[in-house]
Specification:
CATH topology: OB fold (Dihydrolipoamide Acetyltransferase, E2P)
Strand order of the largest sheet: 3-2-1-4-5
Shape: elongated
Distance between the termini: 27 Å
Number of strands: 5
Structural class: alpha+beta
Helix content: 40-55%
CATH class: Mainly Beta
Order of helices and strands: EEEEHHE
Strand content: 25-35%
Number of domains: 1
Number of helices: 2
Length: 142
Amino acid sequence: MIETISHEAVVRTIEKDRVSVTILQSSACSGCAARQMCNSAESKEKDVDVYTSDAASFKVGQRVLLEGRISDGRYAAMIAYGLPLLFLLPTLFLSIYLSGSEVLGAVWALLTVAFYYLFVYFFLRRRLQKRFSFHIRPLYEV
């Protein structure tokens, strides 16, 4: 089973220990032969910062291969979607039970999720940035 996922990217900017790249994220049907006649084929650009000690070895405009671990994607999905859901549902049911108001329950549940995301942003952002690291290498054309 493949343990990494990779995307071709283009180097946008370079700093001392950071390389900013742009990847072209395509929908599954963008490779279809009928994509020019179909309205559902879409693609968009995403900017990604890669922290690396050899940032000076890359050049702006260079094509590179950006690689990440699939397990990191699963972990990120759990942090972004799974844990907030685990906070939202008990808060919703408990606050409805205690207050008797569905509106108040919904407000408390949404506030709980908002506080969760604020906590992740302010207190766990640096740790998660180190955990979710991409690896970059030059893409050589033959």
